[in-house]
Every structure is written in structure tokens, then in C-alpha cells.
Amino acid sequence: MKTEAPAYKRIVLKLSGEALQERNGRDNISPPVVREIAERIKEVHELGVQTSVVIGGGNIWRGLKAADRGMDRTTADYMGMLATVINGMALKSGLEQLGVETRVQSAIEMKNVAEPFILGRAIRHLELGRVVVFVAGTGNPYFSTDTTAALRASEIRADVILKATKVDGIYDRDPNVDSNAQRYERITFAEALSKRLQIMDSTAFSLCMDNKIPIVVFDMNKPSNIRDVVLGRKVGTLVCD
Questions:
Q1: Which of 23, 90, 145, 201 has the lowest tally of Cβ within 10 angstroms?
Q2: Whole-number Å distance between alpha carbons of 105 and 85
């Protein structure tokens, strides 16, 4: 039986911090959920795809919300970056328990728990078949992990950003509010801008558009979706040049 060839050679998978929680939100990080995500990443890795991950920290701390409640924004954002390090370490543990060699690279130096982000080293890890988890955002306040994903994808010359969400793609209206909302199968950057679709924050979206990095927005809750996207199947919404 002929094995399907992946559509992408090198990817950035963007995960929210909430992806590591159980649906009831009881634990900030659920080991069974982490293992399940690790298993899905392993499936893609075993296809020979060079896989990197950018993970958020919203399950532990949201800097913007804290700033809205009176905390200094810079301090709040740095705390959010540290939350992504915790999540990255959890994901690394889950992957390595499955036998997937993994490296965590941090934009904020903390040599006891992660490598510093060094572009050449990150690319070399990918070429050697290791999963690389990028944490601590860009290392600067006022930037989201969406921007981190766009920046790292540009730097490592990734073929695509896979943005895992709670919905099965991009809609013209909020599908949770309007049952007549229509899902886009494919949309251009220009159309997304003109329709003011909230795919990523403006900085991240501009980076992807300028560097011609396609984005696939898909539902993380369906176990086969990451593999299906990588194999080029019609899953979610493709945003491209």
C-alpha cells in the first residue's frame, strides 16, 4: 500500500496554552491531554516532517488581562512568557516519553531548563529529526505568541503555520452566535484583511503576508486533524498569498 507523502516539509504548529487543559478546565496542565497532543505530534514527526511548536501560556497567565486589571503591562507580559516555558517543558516531557527527541528553545535565557533560541541550532535540530518547542515568546513584551509563531516560521523558513483552535476553520461570522455563518475553505491574505477576519493579531498576520507563509486554521479537538492537514487533505481553512 502506497504511503501518502506529506504536503509540507517543515511546519510550525501554533498551540494555545488552553490546549493543555481538560475541557472542564480543572487543571492548568493535564498530563493525559499533554500525552494526547504529543501522540498527534509524533504521528506527524514520523511522516518525516520537520516539526516545531510555538505554545502559548494562557492556561496559566494572561499578561493582557492582568494589565487591564492594573498590573504593569511589561511585568505582566514577562510573566506570560514564563508561563509558556512551563507549558513547553510539559510538552517536551510528553514527547520524550513517547521516544520523540525534543529540544526547548527559549527567547529568554534560562540555561537550566531550556536552550537559548539560536536560529542555526534550531534548524540543525529540525534537520536531525528533533522536534523543537519555541517558548518565552519573542523575548519582548507587547508581542503575542501568534507573532512568535509568525516570526519563528519566517526565521526557520517553514512551509506553513498550523494554527490549532477550538473551531474547524475561519468563518464570515461567529458560528457560535450565527448558525448561518459560512466557513471558508480557502481565502487570500487580502480577502482576510478586507473582511476584517480575526485570524491572528495584526503584527503576526502582516509577517505571514509579507513573507508569504500560508496559515491553516483548524480544529484541534479532532485527533486526526494535524496529520490530515500535513498530508494536504481539506481540513479547516487555508490562508495564502
A1: 23
A2: 9
